[in-house]
Fold this protein.
Amino acid sequence: MKFEGTSSYIATEDLKVAVNAAITLERPIIVKGEPGTGKTMLAHEVAQSLGADIITWHIKSTTKAQQGLYEYDAVTRLRDSQLGDEKVKDIKNYISKGKLWNAFESNKRPVLLIDEIDKADIEFPNDLLLELDKMEFFVYETGETIKAENRPIVIITSNNEKELPDAFLRRCFFHYIKFPDPDTMEEIVNVHYPEIKKDLIQEAFKIFYDIREVPGIKKKPSTSELIDWLKLLMTDDVDAKILREKDPKKLIPPLHGALLKNEQDVHLFERLAFISRRENENLE
Amino acid sequence: MFINFFFDLKQASLPVSLKEYLMLMEAMNKRVVDSFNVNDFYYLSRSALVKDERYLDKFDRVFGHSFKGLENSEGETEKEIPEEWLKLMGQKYLTDEEKKMVESLGGWDKLMETLKQRLEEQKKRHQGGSKWIGTGGTSPFGAYGYNPEGIRIGQKESRNKKAVKVWDKREFSNLDGDVELGTRNIKVALRRLRKFAREGVETELDLDNTIKSTAHKGYIDVKMMPERRNKIKVLLFFDVGGSMDAHVKICEELFSAARTEFKHMEYFYYHNCLYDAVWKDNKRRYNENIKTWDLLHKYPSDYKVIFVGDAEMSPYEITYPGGSVEFWNEESGETWLTRLLNIYENAIWLNPIPERYWDRISSASIIKQIFSDRMFPLTIEGIDQAMRELNK
């Protein structure tokens, strides 16, 4: 099994090495990076390229580690017992399997995506240490041990909202998706919009990377925002000439709503545009 | 050789453990990267040994140092940073005056030579180097905006051409940070300040009490109790603006950690020293400020007070009425601080400036004195000590 990237996903060399190491050594891989650099996409693409099933576990602030293993519904059982339901005799009827259980009993090696692990409580990763290390857990209610037949490929994404404990990190491979350079970015764009005009890309990139460089910007536009913006530019049939516009009165790029998602950023940008316009006027 | 590399990493205070090293060895053993390619080995070891993007730059430096010369045997030629780039950038951004300065330093060739030397030195020093070139106003390498972190320069060159070795590009350098705390550690440190109590609505089943009561009465008698909560109440004061701008990030981290850790937390902003008013929103500080007197009356004395500030100002701003740089203060900062300290028994001051400089800043010493030595550095260790102090 080897991951080589897919026709719809551009994987850099270092990313491939990291993913393949995780696959070969059967250890989880943690993927971090700016929002919108394709962390979640990666898991789906790995599954697709290996022909494996994908099991996704989206983490929320209220998610508990136990929920990934199984949940025992005592309340329903109590109610059933009062009604004299036959089901009540078998405790298994009241145990609902979690995502990890599903992944462990899969008969083909699946990809398990634990998405945005940093959203959960600070102790969450610690509670999963053993389960991810040994790929097995114990069900107290039935007394059985669930062990992975095929150790799943575990891909964990994090947005860096909380730091992960060291003990957890030590058991994983780690990859930081750095923001793509313009060349990689062009490949990515080509994958999404093969028919896009070259000059439009060039001008759009210039504006895009310029915006990212603006000091003090709160939310830097990311790959997925660039893709959206390009799509808007294409559907509106904006000409590359308009993007090349050097007229300081039109410094704010067309359809900027797709790139700047934050009110303060738009203000900041407008202010900068205003300043540069005034400077230009002074020069004249 | 790998063992040495491992120790080099350790020495550069990268948090690597034996487990990770063994993981790397296992990966090598299983031929995760099939060819004996240095680049692939670099990617693999990075992925196995570095678990936080903050350390990526440091790792790159150590890797470059440990495997120096290795790439030559690969047949990959060692190249310098193309001089043309610098010239090009110089022409673009330099003023005539600066160009003359370059000439006075012996021209471009000489400058390149020195630059190379300096880059070498930096690699050997392992740390603190990333700022050395680029920001120092006195360094000739700052003047023409040359940025060895590679991002800008890297853009000019396709990533496939490998003009510079991958790790030598040090693309992650701006993520490195020696003093960075991270909110996880702050939270753990803040957890020292806890006092649990059950108060309020009874929402939880009190199992022990239920069993006892059921056995006692002979029928099921459900007992409830309120949820266990952290009872600690905190007032946080943040210094904003001026010299504090350099510490914004760590203050933000402390703030977000504190907000999740303490249920009862009120925060206020001040500038340099506490005077007769504070404010809650920096945008509306002149319209919607809060009188310090109101604050002292409103919050009972069981609140714990944390001041965050660099305490770097003119001593007059503390000791004399009218000393404030922003407005005419009727009473001195010292009066206000003492007034506050008389009400709140548990109060500390967290200072983002390293402890060793405090004595040299007279205003910091004065404040430390006012706080009867309860000033702590804004580091994990410092917060830890501070929380112990507050718990007394």
Remarks:
- Chain A is about 45% helix and 15% strand.
- The radius of gyration of chain A is 24 Å.
- The CA atoms of residues 73 and 94 of chain A lie 5 Å apart.
- The interface with chain B takes residues 13-14, 17-18, 20-21, 24-25, 27, 29-30, 32, 122, 162-166, 169-176, 178, 181-184 of chain A (CB under 8 Å).
